[in-house]
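_Full entry_
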Amino acid sequence: MDDKEIARKYLITSLTIKNLELDLQYIKNGQFKIKGPYVQLIEGMISKAIQERRMLKQEMYKRRIQVEYKYTQGDFVTYKYLLNGKVEEVPFYKYKLKKDVEEMTRRLMI
């Protein structure tokens, strides 16, 4: 796996964790009659994602890779990748990021 792919996977994993944490709060504070199974499912998914992110973070540390949010402009979000001393700004289409997070969420459910 190349440096850019590791950085991208880290970004998607982090966004998925944020999304799942928000969903967990909606369920806990929502008007669900039976919350337990949903809370348990999402907490398990968050745990898997955190383990995956931890492994990616270790690999990023070894390879001197960093990912930083820069700005949002219209339908695009720009992140800065620091790849072994090289700086690269990478724009992402918001809809594509959303689809990637959705795909990872589905994968974590299994």
Remarks:
- The two ends are 24 Å apart (CA to CA).
